[in-house]
């Protein structure tokens, strides 16, 4: 029997814990995107940092392998809808910010599609199993939705929210007026 694998940390905490400007920015984004705590923000920030680090490495790499890795990086970023431009360069990857990743979270997309009234309500619907992506129940609000599945976000057919007459359903037409 083998030893259990050592789990790696999925986020890095800030170097200095009490910088007021950073705390204020994190709080504003946490409210805007309905994040539960700072750890969720730091996870997305670390994921962005990984993409940017890889892009910096590839800018200096002029070999054939570097070109292949750049194409793969662009493929990942385009599949998730983080990088939209067709003729994107590595400089475009370096110009990404954490909001470009936060916009691709399931919680944000459920709110923006009008399936929930607030980001917090979107989170609750997801955690309680009322939201399906491509016909499958997804209970993780931090799920990064690929751009081809973005139009397939709906209520679960077995959920009470699937009924048009449910009181928690948003009436998008009346809110626009």
UniProtKB/TrEMBL annotation:
HAMAP family assigned to the protein according to its UniProt record, in alphabetical order: Ribosomal_uS4_A (MF_01306_A)
Small ribosomal subunit protein uS4 N-terminal domain segment(s): 5-103
Protein name: Small ribosomal subunit protein uS4
Keyword Membrane among record annotations: no
GO molecular function: rRNA binding; structural constituent of ribosome
Spans annotated as Disordered: 158-177
Annotated RNA-binding S4 domain residues: 104-166
Signal sequence, renumbered to the chain: none
